[in-house]
Amino acid sequence: MAEIVLGMWTTHGPTLSTTPEQWLMRVKADKTRPSHPFRLGNYSFDELKELRKSENLGEQASLEERTRRHGRCQAAIKIMADQWEEVKPDVAVIMGNDQKEIFNADLIPAFTVFTGETLYNEPASPEQIPLMAPGIHEAEAGHNPPEYTEYPGLPELSKLIVETATQEGFDVTQMSKLPVHQNHWSSGVGHAFGYIYRKVMRDNVVPHVPIIQNTFFPPNQPTAKRCFEFGQMVGRAIKAWDSDLKVAVFGSGGMSHFVIDEDLDALFMKALAERNAGVLTSLDERYFQTGTSELKNWIAAAGIIFDTALEGDVIDYVPCYRSEAGTGTANGFVSWS
Ligand SMILES: [Fe+2]
Description:
single chain; alpha/beta; Protocatechuate 4,5-dioxygenase, Chain B; 9-stranded mixed beta sheet; two-stranded antiparallel sheet; 33% helix
């Protein structure tokens, strides 16, 4: 019987792979975006600035503070990668999402399991770079390899997960090859997976099952409850797998962004520490907008990890502000072994 030996939840965004100076590249877009979801409302940049003026977020976004927080994130990434090396899992299951890197608007499945022998990633071509959103190309080394690289899938476990899903009433999409799009800004597997390959596995990528949840794009995002239950099902499939291999499970994405909400993140971290599925699955769905929606990858991973004897803790939580309106990305790093 396969054994789950490591569970990791990590953010994966551009702030982890760019300099504190480069964090500001997205401020212009923050200011022009007409509406930012925050808590249960929607606000312009100026409205957020007014709403949050007592929080001294301008100070928290100073270069000095950004530099300090950047350093904390890098230290946490190192701890995770060192732990990965030490535990040496044989295979992995990664709960992630797609931001129209793998799929485009033509086709957005709710749950997809990659079942192929190999998948790939590659650096952006000169034609793709101008098509990217601000600050994304600069962060590329955090998730794309320097040259075309193939990575091993894990068809045996992937197919078992698809079968288990179907038997249990989850109608999943199976994907054996990454789609190729013309004139598209991204190719290969998305950053939710590439980040884990590069930053946690340090390019020593083990055979793994990428599972893609549509957390971002309305209206077919699975609810938090559905994601948790989906994760529980994946956990049962892993346990039923007739294999001696050691399995690692990842939840890749989150935490609150592009407007940071430290209260929401604290509630989340507490629920994880207490294995409190009730809290994770009963949050108002309106919290799970844009980047914050990626916390559903954490929830799905929790569905797997809560049902193991693993124990662990938060390595760090670092709200990385880039503006006085509270825009930025909150980074979180949690490991259970
Ligand atoms: Fe993301």
